[in-house]
Amino acid sequence: MPSDVELLTAWRAGDKPAGEALFDRHFAAVNRFFRNKAGDDLGDLVQRTFLTVLEARQDFRGEGSFRGYLLGIAYNVLRHHYRDRQVGRAIDVETVSLADVAARPSEMLAARREHRRLLEALRMVPLEHQSLLELYYWESMSASEIGEVLGVPEGTVRTRLRRAKQLLEERLTQLIEDRTVLATTLACLDDWAREIRAALD
């Protein structure tokens, strides 16, 4: 089976089937990345991400993982998407959440009440923290791998991850009035995050 680098090289040389194979291999991860952040623009942002990979001729040389490189591009595509939508207003992904800039709630469906609350709470934390949490929970990425995506050192990721989890718990506390349900939700956070990830597939 050809590696990601081999497929990418062939695609950039005009081999369309190689591009399709690369797309098929990584579509699910990119789709998951945008799913709770993009609303009706999901398909466009996924397509834009892969197009950017094709056009960024010399950016990826096989150092690190292609998935991390690809999700890093997806993260930048997302940031530009919301920056462009907020004409005349700078978007700081460290402080602005989707609840601040996206009029429409997520289209994601969740069968369990706890899942719905978790998705809603994710949209209420700053976009950078939401992205970090989803990479951690849904892609099972290490701090080092997430650092590759976000372009920051591993130690910084660990610090931000702790803060992101704290913010998520605060938002869940705001959303869930029943203290028993809240305690159960917080205790089962890892399991429910994985269940949502499975549902995304």
Give the helix/strand layout.
Blueprint: H1 4-12, H2 16-35, H3 42-55, H4 66-85, H5 98-101, H6 113-122, H7 127-138, H8 143-150, H9 154-175, H10 179-187, H11 189-200
Helix pairs in contact: 1-2, 2-3, 2-4, 3-4, 4-8, 6-9, 7-9, 8-9
Structure description:
Helix 2 (16-35) crosses helix 3 and helix 7 packs across helix 9. The protein has helices at residues 4-12, 16-35, 42-55, 66-85, 98-101, 113-122, 127-138, 143-150, 154-175, 179-187, 189-200. It contains eleven helices and no strands. The protein has 201 residues and is mainly α. The mean pLDDT is 82. It has one domain (4-200).
Give me a quick take on this structure.
The protein is built from eleven helices and no strands. With 201 residues, it is mainly α.
Overall mean pLDDT stands at 82
Runs in which pLDDT lies below 50 for 5 or more consecutive residues are none
Number of contiguous helices: 11
Topology order in helix (H) and strand (E) letters: HHHHHHHHHHH
Tell me the count of domains.
1
- According to DSSP, the number of beta strands is 0
> What's the N-to-C terminus distance?
23 Å
Oligomer: single chain
Helix vs. strand class: mainly alpha
Q: How helix-rich are the residues, as a percent range?
A: 55-70%
Estimate the global geometry from the Cα principal axes.
globular
